[in-house]
Design a protein that fits this description.
- There is one protein chain.
- By secondary structure, the chain is α/β, with parallel strands linked by helices.
- It folds into 2 domains: 9-218 and 358-403, Rossmann fold (3-Layer(aba) Sandwich), CATH 3.40.50; 246-326, formyl-coa transferase, domain 3 (2-Layer Sandwich).
- It has helices spanning 18-28, 65-68, 84-95, 116-122, 147-153, 156-159, 178-201, 211-217, 220-229, 263-272, 287-292, 294-305, 310-317, 330-335, 337-341, 383-391, 395-403; strands at 9-12, 32-37, 52-54, 60-64, 75-78, 99-102, 127-132, 205-210, 246-250, 255-259, 324-325, 345-350, 354-359.
- A hairpin with a 4-residue loop joins strand 9 (246-250) and strand 10 (255-259).
- This is CoA transferase.
- Pfam families: CoA_transf_3.
- One of its GO terms (molecular function) is transferase activity.
Length: 407
């Protein structure tokens, strides 16, 4: 069964995470994605290790775990497009492509005639998605942008970490490159919107996606907490600024997360906890009151949760309809029966390792399901086949260009 985007061809000139993440999503949805990399070195993340993938004998391969996370369902070709012959290869591939993704500095590709203004004359229907740190305009446009920096500059770190009056206080980044991931998702949404517009008008367009814009947009309720009050929210550790109780609590053998979203759930929790009086106490009876009196309520809950194990609390709270859960390490995540039932870990054939474990796509489409066709490719693994099939290059043409360093 063909994927939802099986008629779409994507040329992915991006590297690291945000752009490749968008390319992988499009590939998972069926698009034919060609990843263009630098000869010899390739995508920066190929070298971001350890860890590296090991084969069935336990020997390390050259494929980093980081690279493997974002490059499934792509073909890899190596082209030096700083040289005229390489630029011509890209232009010929653009003529056959629907989408181009790039994450070079603003204006970086113009020197090679590979910017949007140049390529739209080659293919007026081209959807050209630029992913940068700060966007195509503004005083920071020429700066390089990396996820960690943007988490700080964009305010996320000011909201993440222990409160100032707690031990270990201070701003903290999120444990994964979340801004890159969110930018990849927004880039994908923009590409899909542009494809729909093109189907209506026949026109391509330029998509300007910036990590900083995405980070600010995803501040969500915290941004509105500031905009409606003029007061910058403070760090609350694992607590929620607008909902109480909505945080972690100690148990007899670990931790328990409570995410109580309404007053009915709080009443049920109070009953299970052996303190039904809490639900009728005017200090705690409504969420608004609980937020105002969190400094009183939270210690009371903590004094109660330590007398049962995490599993005992979950066994009592789940039947009562009180949202709760453990804090799992990744070994427990991938052993979780729900994760297994949803098949969130897959394995694909790999030319070096025999098999590579991967995290599945979370998309479940009934008519056009995700297909896993190609493991993250080796550097330049498909250069010959793509150039011969797409551009009618002969083996001699390819050998000559490879000898000259173009491929």
């Amino acid at each position: 069964m063909p994927g939802a985007l099986s008629t779409i061809r994507v040329l992915d000139l991006s590297r690291v995470l945000a752009g490749p993440w968008a390319g992988q999503i499009l590939g998972d949805l069926g698009a034919d994605v060609i990843k263009v990399e630098r000869p010899e070195t390739g995508d920066d993340t190929r070298h971001w290790g350890p860890p590296f993938l090991t084969d069935d004998q336990g020997r390390e391969t050259t494929e980093s775990a980081y690279y493997l996370s974002a490059n499934r369902n792509k073909q890899s070709i190596t082209v030096d497009f700083t040289r005229p012959a390489g630029q011509q290869i890209i232009r010929e591939l653009v003529q056959q492509s629907d989408v181009l993704i790039e994450n070079f500095k603003v204006g970086g590709l113009a020197a090679y005639g590979l910017d949007y203004q140049s390529l739209k004359t080659t293919n007026p229907k081209l959807i050209y998605c630029s992913v940068t740190g700060f966007g195509q305009n503004g005083p920071y446009a020429q700066r390089a942008g990396y996820d960690f920096m943007i988490q700080g500059l964009g305010g996320l770190m000011s909201l993440t970490g222990r409160a100032d009056d707690e031990e270990g206080a201070g701003p903290m980044k999120v444990g994964v490159a979340l801004t890159d991931i969110l930018t990849g998702l927004y880039a994908t949404i923009g590409i899909l919107a542009a494809l729909n517009h093109r189907s209506e008008t026949g026109q391509g367009q330029h998509i300007d996606t910036a990590l900083l814009d995405v980070q600010v947009a995803c501040l969500a309720n915290q941004a509105m907490n500031y905009l409606t009050t003029g007061k910058a929210p403070a760090r609350l550790g694992n607590a929620h600024p607008n909902i109480v109780p909505y945080q972690d609590f100690p148990t007899a053998d670990g931790d328990l997360i409570l995410t109580i979203g309404n007053d009915t759930q709080f009443r049920k929790f109070a009953e299970v906890a052996g303190h039904p009086e809490w639900a009728d106490d005017p200090r705690f009876a409504s969420n608004q009151a609980r937020v105002a009196n969190r400094s009183v309520l939270i210690p009371l809950i903590r004094q109660t949760t330590v007398f049962r194990t995490t599993d005992e609390w979950m066994a009592a709270l789940e039947p009562a309809g009180v949202p709760c859960g453990p804090i799992n390490s990744l070994d427990k995540v991938f052993a979780d029966p729900q994760i297994r039932a949803r098949q969130m870990q897959i394995a694909m054939e790999h030319s070096l390792a025999g098999s590579v474990p991967l995290v599945a796509s979370p998309l479940r489409l009934s008519a056009t399901p995700v297909h896993y066709r190609q493991a993250p490719p080796l550097l330049g693994e498909h250069t010959d086949s793509v150039l011969m099939q797409r551009l009618n290059f002969s083996p001699e043409d390819i050998a000559r260009m490879r000898a000259s360093g173009i491929l």
